[in-house]
Write a structure and sequence with these properties.
By secondary structure, this protein is of the alpha/beta class. The protein has a single domain, classed as Ribosomal Protein S5, domain 2. It is built from two helices and six strands; from the N terminus they run ββββαβαβ. Strands 4-5-3-2-1-6 form a six-stranded mixed beta sheet, covered by helices on one side. It is globular, with a radius of gyration of 13 Å.
């Protein structure tokens, strides 16, 4: 996993052989924020079946809820972004979201880029 900060977004990327995923989260102080998901332009030429925006968002929100329950915290996001030609399944974004929250909460580093 590679963690970075790109402007106001916390980013985690995962590359395991031919599979690759990138997730960017923008945190908010507003617990009532309506989170949205955004596709970023494709990178490279690989093609996978299209990911569902709603399934990505659902997975991200479940991952954040799980991390919050585990840590006793109340982190919230207003935006989640992923790369258009990332690999399925969408559920991996839940794991990535939880990893971002755990790293942030533990004071782990997000490299500025």
């Amino acid at each position: 996993m590679f963690y970075s900060r790109q402007g106001e977004y916390l980013t985690v990327s995962r590359i395991t052989g031919p599979r690759h995923n990138l997730l960017q989260l923008r945190l908010t102080q507003d617990p009532n924020a309506e989170p949205r998901v955004e596709r970023m332009p494709a990178v490279g030429t690989c093609v996978h079946g299209p990911l569902s925006d709603q399934a990505v968002l659902d997975a991200v929100m479940a991952g954040i809820a799980h991390a919050n329950a585990e840590l006793g915290t109340a982190y919230a996001i207003d935006r989640a972004r992923f790369i258009d030609n990332d690999c399925p399944p969408e559920g991996v974004y839940g794991m990535l979201a939880a990893l971002v929250i755990r790293r942030l909460h533990s004071g782990g580093e997000f490299v500025a880029s």
